[in-house]
Design brief:
By secondary structure, the chain is of the alpha/beta class. Helix content is 38%, strand content 20%. It starts with a strand and ends in a 10-residue tail after the last helix.
């Protein structure tokens, strides 16, 4: 069962919202119904998020992504369509039942931290459990553990204004982890951070996800961030879904020119993996080749393949050869122009790099 399911979701603001939905469901663009004096934020959006998946919703300002995430936890009721959390249609729940479901199943991490300024870091991390009536000793114990996970165990007695922006965002993440919900919604959670801190937070999120296996819906306007974090990415434009797919699918097979323009500046070597660029391998010969995991980023394979006399063998968890990565497959996947390939001659001609270990 999907952890989260959106079924033909619409969110239209205005008195004539129902009439607008009828027109939009026939394929009308939202700009053609301005005479109704409505704002169509989300239009016929459907998707499923599997347990343990990082599902990224990506789009420019005005694409409807923030409105969408607020419908996923019931902060905004849909004009039409349904939202299911672990099979429960939350659009049918009473306010009390919806609050209970949020407390048990869904946590939220906001862009602007949303910390209580006069409470300590520990008290902020424990706040969600306090609202749920959990005892002080238990919630502080769980909050302290979450702060350790995000590297802030030594800062639990400080106030938020004594922390940097990146540290404050870690407190917000710790608060979500303290609540111990299976689903975490993150709305532009790293957008307010400096680039280096933002990348550190992305790395930490991936590390935590590998350890904890949460279901995460992550909202961003940055495609590089989406490509790095997402198991799958949903691209929104003008309130509608343009494409849903893995980073490799979106990079290699954009649904239209809009998506293709987004992917032009993406560093393909950091998105593509060994599995996405490999070719069939002769298993007898590959038995003696150097091994790599299917999810190894191509950027990490450059030096390794250049230092070998043979291709790299891509192997599964049982150490079975499932493919091969060679200089040719890497260059082909990256569509590297001739002038760029000259910078890595050992890859371009398939020979060993001079001085490489033998």
């Amino acid at each position: 069962m999907p952890a989260v399911r959106a079924n033909h979701l619409y969110k239209v603001f205005g008195k004539r919202a129902s009439q607008a939905v009828a027109l939009l469901s026939d394929g009308r663009h939202r700009d053609t119904i301005k005479d109704l004096n409505v704002t169509a934020a989300v239009i016929d959006v459907s998707f499923e998020v599997q347990p343990g998946e990082i599902f990224v919703v990506m789009g420019l300002s005005g694409s409807g992504k923030s409105t969408l995430i607020r419908m996923l936890n019931g902060l905004l009721p849909p004009t039409a369509g349904t939202v299911e959390i672990d099979g429960t249609d939350i659009t049918t729940l009473s306010r009390r039942a919806l609050r209970a479901l949020r407390g048990e199943k869904i946590s939220m991490v906001f862009q602007h931290f949303a910390l209580l300024p006069h409470r300590t870091v520990l008290e902020n991390a424990a706040y969600g459990l306090e609202v749920r009536g959990v005892s002080r000793a238990e919630r502080h114990e769980r909050a302290a553990h979450a702060l350790d996970l995000v590297g802030l165990g030594d800062w639990k007695d400080h106030l938020p204004n004594q922390l940097s922006g990146g540290m404050q965002q870690r407190v917000g993440l710790a608060r979500a982890l303290t609540a111990d919900t299976d689903i975490i919604l993150m709305d532009e959670a790293f957008s307010a951070l400096d680039p280096l801190i933002r990348r550190d937070m992305q790395t930490q999120l991936l590390q935590l996800q590998a350890e904890l296996g949460k279901t995460i819906v992550f909202i961003t306007h940055d495609l590089n961030e989406a490509m790095r974090l997402g198991n799958r990415i949903c691209v929104l434009r003008d309130g509608r879904v343009v494409q849903i797919g893995t980073p490799e699918e979106i990079l290699n097979h954009p649904a239209d020119d809009y998506v293709a323009r987004f992917t032009e500046d993406v560093d393909r070597s950091r998105v593509l993996t060994a599995a996405s660029v490999m070719e069939p391998a002769p298993k007898a010969e590959a038995a003696d080749w150097e091994r790599v995991a299917p999810d190894a980023p191509v950027v990490e394979l450059f030096q390794r393949v250049a230092a070998c006399d043979s291709p790299l063998a891509v192997v599964d968890k049982e150490d079975r050869v499932i493919g091969a990565v060679s200089p040719t497959t890497i260059l082909s996947a990256l569509a590297m122009p001739e002038e760029a390939s000259s910078a890595v001659p050992s890859l371009a001609n398939g020979t060993r790099r001079e001085g490489a270990a033998k």
